[in-house]
Amino acid sequence: MKKFRILPIIFAVLLMLCGCAKRVCPTGSWKLISLKEGGSVMDAAALEENGRSGYLVMKEDGSGVLRLDDIDNDVTWKKGYIEQNGERQRCVMDKEILQIGDRNANMRFEAWDGVLPPLEAGYWVMTGYGNQTFPIEESENYFYLVLNEDGSGYLYFAGTAGDFTWEPGVIHAASDLAYTLDGNSMRTNIEGTDVVFEKSAKQVPELTESYGYSGNENVWHYRMYAFDYQGKAYEDEVFQKAGISSEIVINADGTGMIELNGAASGLTYDDKYMYFNDNQYEYTIVDDGFELMYEDFVLKFIYYDPAAKD
Hints:
- The protein is mainly beta.
- Helices cover about 10% and strands about 55% of the residues.
């Protein structure tokens, strides 16, 4: 008989202990504050430093969305667990912290009163143009899109920025530009050429009041003002009428970008050659610019300041 008298006391103690960590999945919005995986733990500061983020939104009807690193995953939930792609994980409420997972791998969330921003919102850097690919570091200061949460945005290329508006799936500029999302990649087609942008977790480069100049003293801009072909010189006015144009952005770290008739390519350079499109091209410094030996042409470039007003 004494054994049965002790059992209610044990159950009462267990209920008190369980009150500190209830198996439940409350509705509402939650923000990731720590992530434990692979034996290591990232707190809120480490998540931000490494460009990691997570949000969980659970609705009354049992559906929800788990957004991890800008990728949305549909989930369903019931009291005590959450399910994603057929995989079920335990939900535990520890005071005001929601934990999903177990001791070895888990995510911890705190209540959040924000609204999930559109997945497109952010800083998108060009990493692919036609058959060419570029490391994101090559383009992040030269060719990128900024899509703001309010539907505004701008395209930045080699010192020039142009405004546009957007809605999911379409950018409205001089003409409508459709795009698709694939994880952290955005794909579109510009005048028949496939272009890929990759979402960056870095801070968007700041534009000065001149709107279009990064203000980076380690970046130099050059535009083509003339070229020679088979011993004959062609000046600015002539090839502008023919629709020929080219700009080169030179970075102090030995990288850069060349734009020729609207086609952009990353480049590297040393004291004698520029390397792009899987070829090397000799150049010579002259006055306020340089001359680039490009196939049968001598392209002449002059320094310009994109921040200077006309």
